[in-house]
Amino acid sequence: MSGARLALTLCVTKAREGSEADLDALEHMFQQLKFESTVKKDPTAQQFQEELEKFQETIDSRKDPVSCAFVVLMAHGEEGVLEGEDGKFVKLDNLFEALNNKNCQALRAKPKVYIVQACRGGFIAYRHDQKGSYFIQTLTDVFTNQKGPILMLLTEVTRRMAQAELVQEGKPRKANPEIQSTLRKRLYLQ
What we know:
- By secondary structure, this protein is α/β, with parallel strands linked by helices.
- The protein has one domain (4-173): Rossmann fold.
- The protein has helices at 19-32, 45-61, 92-97, 134-145, 150-163; strands at 4-11, 36-41, 66-74, 76-78, 81-83, 89-91, 112-117, 127-128, 132-133, 166-168, 171-173.
- It has a four-stranded parallel sheet, with helices on both faces. Strands 4-5-6 form a three-stranded antiparallel sheet.
- A hairpin with a 3-residue loop joins strand 8 and strand 9 (132-133).
- Helix 1 (19-32) runs parallel beside helix 4 and helix 4 (134-145) crosses helix 5.
- It is globular, with a radius of gyration of 16 Å.
- The termini are close together.
- One of its GO terms (biological process) is proteolysis.
């Protein structure tokens, strides 16, 4: 992790109360972890794709080496898609392809972390109107206050969310994030 650390956050804030609190928490986390962070608010479905492609071009055109890329995507969603500010949908798989080894030479064999905070059809991503989403708030707390490999930190996020009883619309709820990994080595963000 001796090279540049770059982060991109794409967040639909309209009709997603609490999103600003999530953006603030993420910005604090990225500062703590020494990431160069870019934030784009209220992208359309097409702009989600365009912003990731711009991010890929920025990474590939840098003179200094990049050691890690971190992408946070926050919006309403359904299974496998995100809803842009314009009400149209973009496929998550298309967004993930922008930084793969084929399309982003500078990140070949380098860690690419995607965090997606969105509903997935019947699976709800709970969000507090003022405090932000339970997932992003838990994630940023763990990532800024604990040390260890990222998979251990993500397991702690899952543990905390499983223990918490979230209250949404006056009813107790449980929520667990899904973690997928293709890491071949331990990744330390600190």
